[in-house]
Design goal:
By secondary structure, the protein is an alpha/beta fold. It contains 13 helices and 22 strands. The chain starts with a strand and ends with a helix.
Length: 444
C-alpha cells in the first residue's frame, strides 16, 4: 500500500492548479485521472475553450470541417501542456486510472496493470460534473443522441440538429450550428429563453437567433425518441398539441450534475447535498476530516473560473492567512457566447423590485457604439441598475460584441464599491466596446 501526502482525484481546473501549488511547496502529490484525453479538465478538452474556438470559427465564416480541425489542434496542444505542467514537477505524479473509495481515507485505483490500494494525509476530490440525461422513451437507446462532449467530437457537420434544452449550453450550440449553416430546432420546457437575464435582452437575443435560423419550440416536452433510417423522429408535446420533428441528431443539454457515480461514496462518511453534490463548508472541507472537494463536484457554480477560485480558497487555507472562503468570493459575472455574447453581473431589475430596493435604470443600444459598427455587428443593448442615491452599481446586463470583456470592468467596479461616475468619466481607448460605458453611465 503506497502512501502520499496529497492525492487529487480529477485533473480539472482546480485540481491541476492545486497540484502545482502543492508541488511548489515541496509536497508530494498524486493526481489521478481516469481519461488521458481529459488532462486539463472539461474546460480545455470538451467545453469552454473548444466550443468558443468553434463559435469564433463559425462567426468568422469558416466551414465546419476546417473549424473542427483547428479545434482539435488547440485541445491537443493545451492537453499536452497541462499534463506536463503537473507531471514535470519533481514531487508530482500523474496516474491514468480509475479511483474509488474503500473507506474514508483509502482509495483503490485500477488501470491496465491491475489494482492498487492508496492512502494519503489529504484527499482532494475534483471530478467535475456530467451531463444529465432525462428519462425519455427511446432516448437512451438512440444512436443519434449526443451530449455536448460527444457532439463536439463529430468530424462531420450535422445538417439538421435538434437541441433539448434552452439553457446556456443548448443556446451556444444552437448559435454555433446556425452560423455553420445547419437547420437548428431548440426544444425547451420554459416559455422563454434566458429567464434569469433581463427580459428585454432575452427577447432581443431570441429574435436574433431566429433571424440566424434557429427555430424554437418552447413550453414543450420531448416525450419520445425514435431512430429512423436517416436520423431520428422526435415526439414533442407542445401548447398547440403533439408534434413530430425530424432531425439528423439530438443534442441533450438539460444540465449537469456532480460526477460522483464511480467514487463509491456510500463506503465513506462523505455527505452529499440534495442535488447529489459533495457537501462542503466554506473552506471546501467535506464531512470527513482531511478530505476536500473542489469545483462542480462540490456544488460550486458551474464555471471554470469558479473552480479556479476554489483553488485560491484551498491554497489560502493551506499556505496563506486562511481568510479566503466561499462566503467572501469576489463579485463575478457570467457569459453565454451567442452572436453577440450575453453577459450579466449582479441583480436584475425583477430581483430588485421583489426586494423593494430602490434603483435607477440606465439603457442604451449597442448600435450607438462606434466599435460595434466597425465590427459590423450592431445587435444588442446595454442595461445597468444603480442605487439612485449612492450610484453604486447593483447589476448590469450586456448583449453586444465583446460583452464578455466589458462586463469585467463593471465587475471590478462593483467589487471595489466604485460609483458609476468612475466608469462614466474613465478615458477608454478608441474604438472599443468598453467606451460604451462613458455613454451608458452619462445618463446618471
Amino acid at each position: 500500500m503506497r502512501h502520499f501526502t496529497n492525492i487529487i482525484i480529477g485533473f480539472g481546473k482546480a485540481g491541476k492548479t492545486l497540484a502545482g501549488t502543492l508541488a511548489q511547496h515541496g509536497q508530494d502529490v498524486l493526481v489521478i485521472e481516469k481519461d488521458a484525453m481529459m488532462y486539463g479538465g472539461t474546460c480545455i478538452n470538451v467545453a469552454c475553450l473548444p466550443t468558443k474556438n468553434m463559435i469564433i470559427s463559425a462567426h468568422s465564416g469558416h466551414g465546419y470541417e476546417a473549424a473542427f480541425e483547428t479545434k482539435n489542434k488547440l485541445t491537443t496542444m493545451l492537453r499536452n501542456k497541462n499534463y506536463h505542467n503537473v507531471a514535470d514537477q519533481a514531487t508530482a505524479t500523474v496516474l491514468n486510472a480509475d479511483a474509488e473509495f474503500l473507506d474514508d481515507h483509502t482509495l483503490q485505483v485500477t488501470d491496465d496493470s491491475g489494482t492498487e490500494t492508496l492512502t494519503a494525509d489529504r484527499i482532494f476530490i475534483n471530478t467535475g460534473s456530467t451531463p444529465i440525461l432525462p428519462a425519455i422513451d427511446g432516448l437512451a437507446d438512440s444512436q443519434h443522441v449526443f451530449t455536448s462532449k460527444t457532439l463536439l467530437n463529430q468530424s462531420k457537420q450535422t445538417q439538421q440538429l435538434a437541441i433539448l434544452g434552452s439553457g446556456p449550453i443548448g443556446l451556444e450550440f444552437a448559435s454555433m450550428y446556425a452560423q455553420f449553416g445547419s437547420q437548428v430546432t431548440v426544444i425547451g420546457q420554459t416559455t422563454a429563453i434566458l429567464e434569469r437575464f433581463e427580459p428585454e435582452i432575452a427577447t432581443a437575443a431570441k429574435n436574433d437567433l431566429e433571424t440566424d435560423g434557429v427555430n424554437f419550440v418552447l413550453a414543450s416536452q420531448l416525450t419520445k425518441v425514435t431512430d429512423t433510417a436517416t436520423g431520428l423522429s422526435l415526439t414533442v408535446e407542445t401548447p398547440a398539441g403533439t408534434q413530430t420533428l425530424a432531425a439528423d441528431a439530438l443534442l441533450v443539454a438539460t444540465g449537469r450534475r456532480a460526477n460522483t457515480d464511480d467514487l463509491h461514496l456510500e463506503r465513506t462518511s462523505i455527505n452529499t447535498d440534495d442535488r447529489g453534490a459533495i457537501a462542503v463548508n466554506d473552506v471546501l472541507e467535506t464531512s470527513v476530516p482531511n478530505v476536500y472537494a473542489l469545483g462542480d463536484v462540490a456544488g460550486s457554480p458551474q464555471f471554470t473560473y469558479i473552480s479556479l477560485d476554489d483553488w485560491r480558497i484551498m491554497a489560502n487555507q493551506l499556505f496563506g492567512d486562511q481568510t479566503r472562503t466561499r462566503a467572501n468570493r469576489p463579485v463575478y459575472a457570467n457569459t453565454i457566447f451567442l452572436n453577440p455574447a450575453v453577459s450579466s453581473v449582479g441583480q436584475t431589475e425583477a430581483q430588485l423590485k421583489a426586494a423593494e430596493q430602490p434603483y435607477q435604470v440606465l439603457k442604451m443600444a449597442t448600435a450607438g457604439v462606434p466599435k460595434a459598427q466597425v465590427i459590423g455587428n450592431p445587435r444588442g443593448n446595454y442595461k445597468a441598475l444603480i442605487d439612485p442615491e449612492t450610484h453604486q452599481i447593483l447589476g448590469a446586463a450586456i448583449y453586444a460584441e465583446e460583452a464578455f470583456e466589458t462586463i469585467n470592468v463593471i465587475t471590478v467596479a462593483m467589487q471595489n464599491h466604485l460609483p458609476a461616475e468612475v466608469l462614466r468619466d474613465q478615458i477608454y481607448t478608441h474604438p472599443t466596446m468598453t467606451e460604451a460605458l462613458n455613454d451608458l453611465f452619462a445618463q446618471i
